[in-house]
Amino acid sequence: MNMDFTKLAGRKTNICDREIYKEFSVLIPVIKADRHFLLFEIRSESLNNQPNEICFPGGRIESLESKQQAAVRETSEELLIPESQISIIAELDTVVTPFNSILYPFVGELREYKGTFNTEEVRSVFTVPMSFFIDTAPLCHDIDIKMRPREDFPYHMVQEGRNYPWGKGRYPVYFYTYEDRIIWGITARIINNFVSLLTS
């Protein structure tokens, strides 16, 4: 059988096994007053996933929706503002996690924001001066990532069977402490990347 490899030329690359990942978009909301501030949400305590955690607006990308559209829609829904008040500035670097999720962060300016939010999803909001993150290096601790095959794994098909030396990795977890708030995890990782892009 003759193979036509030329059909691969010029194709747009994708993520291998993309179907196993959940994809989300988030927005870093910037508010400009006398200086620039970042807006954060504290998730409602009634939510099933990550209640009471500090985060940016965001959520799952819906069918036929672009990454940017998802970021704007989720911000509009969570902060109870029209999409017209959100101006996207840039897309930041994609975050791929070890737990099968991909996040697409955007940074955008909120205009005429009055402190509103959807109480079903958000407990409260607060702001932090952007200068704090420019001037403050985050605390970073690594989590060890180890592969653990399931019991039905076909060990007989790999060299050394159950003694196979599986690869290991590490996952950085960042922490910022601002007043009495701890901003950590993926939110802090996105901020750290944002700052590095601004200051490099």
Q: Approximately how much helix is present in the residues?
A: 10-25%
CATH superfamily of the domain at 20-135 and 180-199: Nucleoside Triphosphate Pyrophosphohydrolase
Low-confidence stretches: none
Structural class: alpha+beta
Total number of beta strands:
11
Question: How confident is the prediction overall: mean pLDDT?
Answer: 94
- The CATH architecture of the domain at 20-135 and 180-199 comes to Alpha-Beta Complex
Q: Write down the CATH topology of the domain at 20-135 and 180-199.
A: Nucleoside Triphosphate Pyrophosphohydrolase
Walkthrough of the structure:
The protein has a domain of 136 residues: Alpha-Beta Complex (Nucleoside Triphosphate Pyrophosphohydrolase), CATH 3.90.79.10. It is built from three helices and eleven strands, in the order ββββαββββαβββα. The strands form two sheets. Strands 1, 2, 3, 4, 5, 6, 7 and 8 form an eight-stranded mixed sheet that branches. The N and C termini lie far apart (51 Å).
Key attributes of the depicted protein:
200 residues, alpha+beta, Nucleoside Triphosphate Pyrophosphohydrolase, eight-stranded mixed β-sheet, three-stranded antiparallel β-sheet, 3 helices, 11 strands, 36% strand
How would you summarize this macromolecular structure in one to three sentences?
The chain has 3 helices and 11 strands.
Topology readout:
Elements: E1 22-32, E2 36-43, E3 54-55, E4 58-60, H1 67-79, E5 86-91, E6 95-96, E7 101-110, E8 122-129, H2 130-135, E9 139-146, E10 168-178, E11 181-184, H3 185-199
Parallel strand pairs: 1-7
Antiparallel strand pairs: 1-2, 1-4, 2-3, 2-8, 5-7, 6-7, 9-10, 10-11
